[in-house]
Write a structure and sequence with these properties.
Blueprint: H1 2-5, H2 8-34, H3 38-74, H4 78-105, H5 107-113, H6 121-133, H7 135-149, H8 155-177, H9 186-210, H10 227-261, H11 263-299, H12 303-339, H13 343-375, H14 379-404, H15 408-433, H16 435-466
Helix pairs in contact: 2-8, 2-11, 2-12, 3-4, 3-6, 3-7, 3-10, 3-11, 4-6, 4-7, 5-6, 6-9, 7-9, 8-9, 10-11, 10-14, 11-12, 11-13, 12-13, 12-16, 13-15, 14-15
Organism: Paenibacillus zeisoli
Keywords: Cell membrane, Membrane, Transmembrane, Transmembrane helix, Transport
GO molecular function, one term: xenobiotic transmembrane transporter activity
């Protein structure tokens, strides 16, 4: 039964449903907010890039802890896995609390610093302060989901996501349209809806988390802190956090470039972000499931199975994301029409649909192999790969060609495509080298030899005693 929990299928389908519901949440959010105005959509898209950037600060700990939990469980060290989960929860809650205070206190200056257009600042202040003020909930929710998921229980976070989406959609509808007894508060209501749904989801995940391990987690366990295990978390986590930060901050920089090009370009990119999420949901679910599976196999010393798991993820993921991108190409204009009737925004969005067909396979390659390397703890390599490619190709070239030379959003999108393929193929070469897998095999061989040597003197003593 334990083995069945860690198959690619058993792990990936609940992750897909959870991510699909998150996508649905974002799509419904964008669709409903578009009924307020295109300016409101631009504020939500821009603000979410800011929130994503800030979440990397606690995702560093949560991501490292998740991989370590799967590795410890794979090596039959349940108590260590439990301690890692408790430590990560405490640390990320503290980081989330500090970020919440920051965003409540100075939302306006933060929006101005990020080049938010002046006409969007009043809406931005409200949205950033309310949703950003609840970043502590995002921190706790992210950590709990990651910990639960990496024990092999991917269904718990999935069911929680179902409930959170239902509550959020109902409240959004009420606040935007003044329906079912709610006041008509527009974008402020959307922000409150986001906050309340996340609070409820956090409480549900906390209830699941308490019983996740064989020994129930109690309030007194919050005093636990193991420095050695925390160092292990950070050894995996800090490069993982830098890698996440590279992506998020590069995207934030790119959104700033788009803001320079105009509100309509910014809104078009926000709508495309929503549609693109549909393309890689299945692929990302498989990549994330493979990461959990590889970490578990690696922790248990099953290096050959861990190596093959990454290729299985690619085998299933590449056709899926390509097919989804093609479907989006056929239906994209009609889908964009659900969000806006602005002809310029529609023209920009449609021009990017063909490019998305090239983007998604590269993104799948990068996700699957990058996550596989991270599962082994080879997060520094992934970090260096990201630092070079994202800042030189994705960000630097986007500014050069898109803004300085005036080639616009198409040039920026082309730079993002090149970045995905570059990082993907470099990661694939690293995976084929099997460095961490060979090191694990050598470590296991040393342990086997040491145990044999330790057994021999005992055997000789026993023979002498017998004689």
């Amino acid at each position: 039964m334990e083995k069945d929990k860690f198959t690619l299928w058993a792990l990936s389908w609940p992750i897909f449903i959870e991510l699909f519901l998150q996508f649905l949440l974002g799509a419904v959010d964008t669709l409903m907010v578009s009924r307020i105005s295109d300016d409101a959509v631009a504020v939500v898209g821009f603000s979410n890039q800011l929130f994503n950037a800030l979440t990397t600060l606690f995702a560093t700990v949560a991501g490292g802890a998740g991989i370590l939990i799967a590795q410890k469980l794979g090596s039959q060290r349940e108590e260590d896995a439990r301690t890692v989960a408790i430590i990560s929860l405490k640390v990320t809650a503290l980081i989330g609390a500090l970020l919440s205070v920051l965003l409540i206190t100075v939302p306006g200056p933060i929006a101005q610093m990020l080049q938010m257009p002046d006409e969007l600042l009043p809406l931005a202040r409200t949205y950033i302060s309310v949703v950003g003020g609840g970043l502590i909930l995002t921190a706790i929710m992210s950590t709990l989901s990651t910990a639960i998921r990496n024990t092999g229980n991917t269904q718990g976070p999935m069911y929680t996501a179902v409930g959170m989406n239902i509550i959020h959609i109902i409240m959004n509808y009420g606040f935007i349209f003044g329906a079912i007894g709610f006041p008509q508060w527009g974008l402020a209501g959307v922000a409150i809806s986001t906050l309340v749904s996340r609070l409820i989801a956090t409480l549900v995940l906390l209830f699941i988390f308490i019983g996740t391990f064989q020994r129930t987690i109690v309030w007194s366990d919050m005093r636990i802190f193991d420095r050695k295990l925390f160092r292990e978390i950070m050894q995996i986590g800090w490069p993982l956090g830098v890698n996440m930060g590279c992506w998020v901050f590069s995207q934030l920089a790119i959104f700033s470039f788009l803001a320079i090009l105009g509100t309509q370009v910014l809104a078009a990119r926000t709508y495309m972000n929503t549609l693109e999420s549909f393309c890689f949901l299945l692929g990302y679910s498989i990549a994330l499931a493979a990461q959990i599976q590889i970490a578990h196999l690696f922790g248990g010393g099953k290096t050959k199975e861990a190596y093959r798991s990454a290729y299985r993820a690619l085998k299933f993921g590449l056709p899926l994301v390509t097919m989804n991108a093609f479907i989006l190409l056929l239906c994209g204009r009609a889908l964009l029409g659900l969000f806006t009737s602005d002809p310029e925004i529609l023209t920009i969005g449609v021009s990017l649909l063909w490019m998305n067909l090239l983007l998604q396979p590269g993104k799948m390659l990068n996700m699957a192999i990058g996550d596989a390397l991270s599962a082994l703890g080879d997060t520094r390599f992934v970090m260096y790969n990201s630092l070079i490619s994202m800042w030189i190709i994705a960000t630097g070239c986007s500014y050069l060609f898109g803004v300085s030379l005036g080639w616009g959003v198409v040039a920026i999108y082309a730079c993002m495509i090149i970045d995905e393929y570059f990082r993907g193929f470099v990661a694939l070469l690293r995976w084929k080298g099997r460095k961490y897998l060979r090191n694990k095999e050598a470590e296991m061989e040393r342990e086997r030899c040491e145990s044999l040597r330790a057994a021999k003197p005992a055997s000789n003593e026993e023979r002498l005693s017998f004689n």
